[in-house]
Amino acid sequence: MLDRWQQIPSGTRDLLPLEAARVRAAIDGIMREMARWGYREVTTPTLEYLDVLVRGEGTETGDRLFKLIDRGGELLALRPEMTTSVGRLVATRMRGDPLPLRLAYAGQVFRGREAGSGLLREFPQVGCELIGARTLEADAEIVALAVEALRAAVCSPLGEGAPSVGVGDAQPSISLGHVGVLQGILAGLDLPEDEAAAIRSLLYQKDFVGIRDVLDRRHAPTKIVDALLALPTLRGATAIAEARRLVTSPAGQQVLRNLTELGEILDAHGVGDAVTIDLSIIRDFDYYTGIVFEGHTPSLGVPLLGGGRYDRLLERFGASNPATGFALRVERLLAAMPEEEDPWAPDVVVAFAGQGRDEALAYARAMRRRNLTVTVEVLGRPWDEVARDAIARGAGRAVLVRPGTAVVRTAAGAEHLTPMTDLLTGAVQRETP
Amino acid sequence: VSPVTVCVPSGRLLEGAMTALESAGYLTRDGWRSTRRLIVSCTDDAVRCLIAKPVDLLTYVEHGAADLGIAGKDMLLEQGRDVYELVDLGFGFCRGVLAFPVESAAVWERKSPLRIATKYPRIAERYFWSRGRPVEIISMNGTVELAPQVGLADGIVDLVMTGRTLTENSLVEVAELFRSTARLVVNRVSLRSRAGAVTAVVDRVRSAVEQRAVPPSA
Question: For FRET with B41, which of A124, A195, B72, B133 sits at 20 to 30 Å CA-CA?
Answer without folding.
Answer: B72
